[in-house]
Design brief:
- The chain is an alpha+beta fold and 90 residues long.
- The mean pLDDT is 83.
- Helix content is 41%, strand content 11%.
- The chain has helices at 2-13, 53-63, 76-89; strands at 34-38, 68-72.
- Helix 2 packs across helix 3.
Length: 90
Amino acid sequence: MKRLRWAAVAAVALLPAPASPPAHAARAATSYRAWHWNIAGNTMHHGSTTDGLVAAAAQSIQDNNAVFASLNEVCAQQFTAMINQLRAVD
């Protein structure tokens, strides 16, 4: 048993040390604009894609130059309609 313990200790000792970043590592100067909206897609809009919600959300994403956009409580058809509307802009 002692021999097995020493073998395990020796094996761990031979593992390379984890690399650490240099103390003077440069920070990225890039910033991103994120956009989020809890739309209550079914509760307030009953899953509609034609009541103005989709158009308003897509326009807001564009107006805010959002790189990342997230939605809470969105219905599948609303999400699809919004993606289609945003893709039509490109």
